[in-house]
Model the fold of this input.
Amino acid sequence: MLLKLKQVNLSLLIGMGILFSIFLLGLFAPWIAPHDPLAVNLAARLHSPSWTYPFGTDHLGRCILSRIIHGIRISATSAFIIMFLTLLISIPIALLSGYIRGRSDHMMRRIIDSTLAIPDIVLTIGIVGLLGPGLINMIFAIVVVRWANSVRFIRSLVVKICQEDYIFSARMAGNSHYRILIRYVLPQIAMPILIYSALDLGKIVLNIAGLSFLGLGSQPPTPEWGAMLNDAKDYFQISPYVMIFPGLAIVLFVSACQLVSEKLEKYESAVGREI
Amino acid sequence: MNTMGKFVLERLLQLFLVVFFVATITFFLVRISPGDPATIMLKANNVPVSDESIDALRSELGLTNSVGGQYIEWIKQIFSGNWGTSFVSQKPVINELIARLPATLELAIAGLAIMLAITLFLGISSVIYQNRTLDKIGRVLALLGSAIPTFWLGFLSIYVCSVTLGWLPSMGRENWKNVILPASTLGLGLGAIHARVLRANLLDMLQQPFVKASKARGISKNRIFVFQLLKHALLPIVTMTGTSFAFMLGGSIIVETIFSWPGLGQYVIESINMRDYPVIQGYVIFASLLFLVIHMLVDGISILIDPRLNAE
Done:
């Protein structure tokens, strides 16, 4: 049991380590990146990896490694903003809806079902398409699409917990509804939400990259992973490096999120059983 | 049959509600979006933009009415099948969308076929060879399948299969060879993910009493597998196929862009770049309708396979 927990901890640490290093890289990007991510050097376009350009250069001779490192700032930051906004909207709605139940809960479920009945990529593209491409509109669109899923998940947690006996006893002991939600319900759902969010973060990064790839997210020349792949569209047949490295960056980030989410879940259930 | 009738009625009501919901969203999105539709339309047709021409077009489009009036008019039009005309081609949006539907459906069905082939092969073989090499490969593939972006997979497949090896074409829609790469891009990852679900399902079923009973009666392992387990696994596979179909339709937007596949997805991206609002609005409604109809069919088939579902 203890050995297993150690293994889980190791994988968890690796996953978190990868995520943490990515954030450090993004934070200190200007000092770490070997070149200016926007510096055009037409003499050195589409170079293969070399000592000066470890990941090669793109169609304008910009350093791909520097662009990936600076891209963390856009990709990871917007992913976090989206996750935060989604939780900010969905946690209160889910808490109230799942705790109060009744007619308002029924209405909420209807709205959520209607939102979820539209394929999410179609809705996202519709919103960004109509509002116009751009980073802010993209963030708005992804939040609009994701909140319903999040509410549904959190609400199911709340409903389950509110049937527990200790909620009844807390109520009978004279606690206010507000106090019950904050002191008794919220701490119980914090861990599942964290696990869910870790997985969600990966999906959001994929989502952002996909939209930027279609030219709907961050606009050139901003370095962003999906947008870099959009630039690569016309050149990767000559120089595959323009697409290999940005793609690898996305895969690494998303896999790390999945690893963290999966191991957190295992850790949680292992610890829970020990108690 | 009465319950079936109720099922259909309920679903039709849901269809109506969702179309109403989507039509409302798209209407208000256009209202809050920057840029005046009349100006955009004039620019799209290379008509010189002047105050008179804008005013004339605005009253022709009904943009001078109150927002409430416009909204009611819009909802009426959607339900009567008049989804406006494209700014660019000047043809009815619904005709333009229907013209591009076959290409997208072809791609989605081909993607689905590849997905199912992988799901069945990997899912069944990883149960038969549990915890052996093939099972482990399946696990890694499923992990990669959910971490690799579709468009990157598309690039890699073009680079390997068309550029380096020269086996398959990477652009357009001319003959059957064209569909292989885009369909694989759509189907590979999902196939690997679903194989794990099928595996878990089959393993779970192996523990069921009816398997033990069959074993006790001396029925061979292969017979049990083919005639009993797969029969029971049919339902989850049907559900999976239905939800994946929706995924294929969504994923086709990216895949069609990469492979220049002349379907709905490529069309909507073009329209976004041209600011062709009626087409974007029409696309969202059209795709949602398509998605709902497919879900209805899948649920109907599931009930036919397992009537217990209807009772719940």
